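Something for you to look into today, if you have time. I want to see for myself how the chain folds. Leave the record below and I will have a look.
***
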Amino acid sequence: MISRIIPYVLMIILLAAHFSRGGNDILAGFILLIPFLFIIKQKWVIMSLEIIAYLAALVWLYGAYQYIQIRIATGDDWIRLLVIMGGVAIYTAWVGLFLRSQKIKDVYGLSK
C-alpha cells in the first residue's frame, strides 16, 4: 500500500514546488495537505485523488506551454524544458493511473 502512496506524495511535492516557485505559496501549502486524504478509507477519496493527479498533469502541460512560449520569444533553447516538463506531466498522469491498482481498490472499497 505504501508503495502506491509514495509516488503520489512525490507528485504532490513537485506540484507544490511548482506553485511556490510561481509565487502562490498559499496554494502550495494547501496542495501539501492533499496526501492526508489517504487516511480516509472511502471510495470518493481515491477517485478525488486520481482526478487531482490528472488535473495536475494538465497544470504541468499548461505551464510547459507558457514557459516554452517565453523561451521561443526570447530565442532561448526550449527543447530541454519540453522534455523535463513533459516528463513530469507523464509521471503525474502515471501516478493517477497507479491509483487504479487492485490493492488500492481493495483498501478503498472500489472492487465491490
Q: What stands out?
A: The mean pLDDT is 92. The two ends are 18 Å apart (CA to CA). The longest helix spans residues 43-74.
